[in-house]
Design goal:
- By secondary structure, the chain is of the alpha/beta class.
- The strands form two sheets. A six-stranded parallel sheet has the order 5-2-1-6-7-8. Strands 3-4 form a two-stranded antiparallel ribbon.
- The chain is globular and about 50 Å long.
- The chain starts with 8 loop residues before the first strand and ends in a 6-residue tail after the last strand.
- Bound molecules: pyrazine-2-carboxylic acid and zinc ion.
Length: 210
Amino acid sequence: MAITPRPDDLLLVVDVQYDFLPGGNLAVADGDAVIPLINGLGRKFTNVVMTQDWHPAGHISFASSHPGHAPFDLIDLPYGPQVLWPDHCVQGTHGGEFAEELDLPHAQLIIRKGYNPSVDSYSGFQEADRTTKTGLAGYLRERGLGRVFVVGLATDFCVAWTALDAVAAGFETFIIEDATRAIDSNGSLDKAWADLGAAGVTRITTGEIA
Ligand code: VGL
Ligand code: ZN
């Protein structure tokens, strides 16, 4: 499929932050490989929005907030199952900053998420309670944007949840797979691709973007 970006398309760049890059607190293997691809894609899209995972210290998704638990444990919280993570993307820390090598000076909006101390937010559209919105869907509608192309980190968590919510909100949604990298914990990557396919998210590669 050859796709030429249109004026009403959006490149949605998810969580390209130091804590998800090699050396970070929740490093995604080979995560930095997405940066040159995203920079190249950015030059083809008029509309670019970035999400930023942005947790307060002591966030509920941190294993350190649950004595007796370790990172990657699964627990039940009032809003559903929650994977516990190493402390990451704490507000105001280096790990929460965008990678300096990202070259997206024309990005129009940064959506921060995960700032609610007691609810996680993988998705750029809504918190894990599946109710509290970030405002991104309203922004896209008011801007008249229609198709959403999702890239960034990590494929099986924030990229997948963001794409699932984009398609559920009525936007035609694509994941540019080679511009993502996965955490892949306990089968999460296979499950994500199955859910994404069932929801109607289209899986493409950078080479298909003209
Ligand atoms: C993410 C786990 C925890 C992500 C964020 O960006 O995929 N994963 N917080
Ligand atoms: Zn997080």
